[in-house]
Design a protein that fits this description.
Helix content: over 70%
Distance between the termini: 28 Å
Order of helices and strands: HHHEEH
Strand content: under 5%
Number of strands: 2
Largest sheet: 2 strands, antiparallel
Strand order of the largest sheet: 1-2
Structural class: mainly alpha
Number of helices: 4
């Protein structure tokens, strides 16, 4: 059985988390437009729908790529279970992002508030689980 390179594994995890953080920061202004408008019962401009569609579409695609990267990563034997949990939690995060994107009718200029709110909550919950899994991985490698 081939020995897994721990540094390579950690590099994959770090790259996925870094990519996720950067994409989230890039998408955040568009999310905030919708969150503020929903909170204040305000209209959203047509150009904001278009820009958000592009941003969210790019984000979902990047998150799907990150998920594939995690699925292909080879975890050290002692971390296989935690790694599988990490993949499952990241998949939940991606589904939450897809649901938020689907909650917006970009052509009809409408938002399903209930679906948007549920997707936001799902993303937050999943990302908390992702972070806990990463902490377990670090502890499992005795790096903390």
């Amino acid at each position: 059985m081939r020995r897994v390179n721990v540094n390579q594994y950690l590099s994959v995890i770090n790259n996925v988390l870094d990519s996720t953080q950067k994409m989230s920061a890039k998408m955040d202004p568009y999310f905030n437009i919708f969150r503020s408008a929903l909170n204040d019962d305000e209209e959203i401009e047509a150009e904001d729908y278009q820009a958000t569609q592009e941003s969210f579409g790019e984000g979902v695609k990047q998150y799907q790529t990150n998920l594939t990267t995690l699925e292909k990563a080879q975890a050290p034997a002692q971390l296989i279970g935690v790694h599988k949990n990490l993949i499952a939690h990241y998949r939940e995060f991606v589904k939450g992002c897809e649901a938020m994107n689907a909650s917006i009718d970009y052509q009809g200029y409408q938002v399903d508030r209930e679906q948007f709110d549920a997707a936001e909550k799902a993303q937050e919950t999943a990302m908390d689980k992702v972070n806990r899994s990463v902490q377990k991985i670090i502890r499992g490698l005795h790096l903390a």
